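Reviewers of the previous submission asked for a worked example of the structure-prediction workflow described in the proposal, so we include one complete record here. The input consisted solely of the amino acid sequence. No template or homolog information was supplied to the procedure at any stage.
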Amino acid sequence: MSETNPAAAEVAAPHRYTAAVAAEIEARWQDVWDADGTYAAPNPKGDLAGDPGLVAKPKKYVMDMFPYPSGAGLHVGHPLGYIATDVFARFQRMTGHNVLHTLGFDAFGLPAEQHAVQTGEHPRVTTEAAINNMKSQLRRLGLGHDKRRSFATIDPEYYKWTQWIFVQIFNSWYDDKAKKARPISELVARFESGERAVPGGRSWDALSAAERADVLGEYRLAYASDAPVNWCPGLGTVLANEEVTADGRSERGNFPVFKAKLRQWNMRITAYADRLLDDLNELDWPEAIKLQQRNWIGRSEGARVDFPIDGEAITVFTTRQDTLFGATYMVLAPEHPLVEKFTPAAWPEGTHDVWTGGHATPAEAVAAYRAQAASKSDVERQAEAKDKTGVFTGAFATNPVNGEQIPVFIADYVLMGYGTGAIMAVPAHDTRDFAFARAFELPIRCVVEPSDDRGTDASTWDDAFVSYDAKIVNSHGEDVSLDGLGVTDAKARITEWLQRKGIGEGTVNFRLRDWLFSRQRYWGEPFPIVYDEDGIAHSLPESMLPLELPEVEDYSPRTFDPDDADTSPETPLSRNQDWVDVTLDLGDGRGPRPYRRETNTMPNWAGSCWYELRYLDPHNSEKLVDPEIEQYWMGPRAGQPHGGVDLYVGGAEHAVLHLLYARFWSKVLYDLGHISSPEPFHKLYNQGMIQAFVYRDSRGFPVPAAEIEERDGAFFHNGEQVKRELGKMGKSLKNAVTPEAICEEYGADTLRLYEMAMGPLDVSRPWDTRAVVGQYRLLQRLWRNVVDEATGEVTVVDAEPDETTLRALHKAIDGVRQDLEGLRFNTAIAKVTELNNHLTKAGAAVPRPVAESLVLLIAPLAPHIAEELWRKLGHTDSVVHQDFPVADPRYVVDETVTCVVQVKGKVKARLEVSPAISDDELEKVALADEKVVAALDGAGIRKVIVRAPKLVNIVPA
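From that input alone, the workflow returned the following structure tokens.
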């Protein structure tokens, strides 16, 4: 048969495994799996309940991160994680587990809405088309999903429960004493009974309805507030921090982004900061991801200090309260609410010219600087700029430890998003404060003794001295002195003094900010909130959920001059007055009343905060999830004290936001008694990225990778030499390869094997279409070891394998088992290949026990060909639920191993010895070997180093 003549090969081998044969096999078995419900995972109860025997098995819940159904469809880089979880899930089924593995779609979001804005086509139409296309692409890969459990976040029956969860959060508060969320009704009862004092000192009965709502708003876990936000006039919406580039522009559209105060919904995730930190210790996550979450939460211990000003106080948080005597000025964030209150009408006498910014009045200076700061992103503001900017407010505060009047500035390097939005500046011991003090000619006072020879006259220094291991100096007042103390002792003493004086206390601060939860868009979950005639927010009762998105004539948010920061959002929903203004009976005893609906929508993060729970019980119309079903799949158990999904696979780019938000929602639902698992995902695994070469012409523009010609190591497109670089794969880079293209040329099983064989799953790797053929040939050799290519008959024989083959088989079984359990799919494929090659080289018919074991070994990796060969081997049941082979220990251990014998560090002999040989026995055998005796040539022996069974090192005298 000619390998170089495909046509001749087809004639000579009509039953050869080809792309056409693979396509027929794959389509047929996918139909069988669907018809038989092969991948249906039974629940202990409910409409998905199944065989009690299956439910009685140990469970395994395997999940992928929610995919967004892009209109562009999948390229071969996208399925990497999906194939990996599918292989793992199949292996778990074959090792006796009841496996839940399914996939839904995170379908709200900006791309579909932007398309709707441009075309006028409803985003649901394009989104559902994209979902159907993605389902078709994924089906072709043979993924073993329980399709009964699939859904999309845009399904009203799904987002009914997203809205329901929001209502639970809105109607909850965090009890610091109990360290958990509790119903807001309990807090109201405490205020009513007097058990808890009402802020401000009045009785609960004396408050109006609006005043009560304001009080509760300070406690609710979901609350609306006027907060600094990223306002993008060019897009007409508020953006989350992650949607703003480092240079202060929108990631989508590249429009300017400004800081503005707008009324927005927030989630009080900061209440859970400690628990979010502490519970990381019990999760099986990559340490790099845990570190990112810890840094994002940013826990720091320090003190709250009040600086008196005009009968009130500016509160700061500092981790260096030991340096209070060195504070010579204060800085507020430009957005700080006290700035306007304490800004006088005129500059105080003696104000330095450099402090005023050239403005006639403090108000002018503050307004001008605020406008300047609003045009910068938080990243820009915190960057280490060479020139420090700021302006004097015209106000002075009192340093509480020494009574000094210190000037109050605003500067953009202080953010409202951290601490209190105000700092005490100790320029001698903080680099940024030092630079600011030099720029504005402010005093610099040393209070931490330098360890070098610069002395304590800070006016002569070139930079700040920062140390946590030094003595405190120049720090004494009328009734407190820190002089001579180390930093730790000084912190303790001044904190005790502040608490005794009632002007501060030891406290913990977090970098984490409350979660901005509003978007001025159409394509998102409507808030289940209405406002009465007094502007008080009320949640809708469950009977009114889901609150569905109304039809609108225009999907565009109102956009403005991109450079005009003094504008406000106008949402698409606000234009549908028939939907916005309604008369409702909320069941609160007040009867039908007029209300106005909330016209913002939830961010796309909302639907992905809890989808792991809906997979469990997707058709339950009465509850979020049945408690018994949730307990079965996700409840705490040995080794998983916080419960959660057994394996969650996705990209590391979701390290903070999605994972942090999902953990927060789980903890609230757990506190309120709705679920038994305070953590959503027990084990997290980040797959790498499939990269591809990008080819750029002389202008730097990508050209189609499929049209590149390689000549002598150089690359050409239409005769022009182009540059090659390794990057992402994607339509815009013109280097995308579709799964369909590979499936048509080689089959889905080949694509699955290639993606798993490219390298370790957690490492990025370059795609090479030319290398795919290697896995195709593996499957062809596997086929030939079972099926006669000329006749189509099965060629295996009912005979016992020889010992060499038994050893090859059981070593492969042992290795593949361990590799699949450890997600080392590339090395598992290598071991299957080694066994298959052994059988091919033997040249004889393959014994049936070996052939069947080989098919079972490759079944998780290449399920279609495995099903087909399993059926050809005479079995009538699916390979999916067969027992995975178990290695016989007798054949896993080598009969002999090679021992290297060295004399003076040089190899002189190689001995075949038993793996169980002792050090003493091995030494005797080595010294008796004739090659070793000749090498020693009668010399005495000073030392013999034995590492049985593989090494003997002889050192002559």
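The radius of gyration is 35 Å. We consider this example representative of the routine output the project will generate in years two and three.
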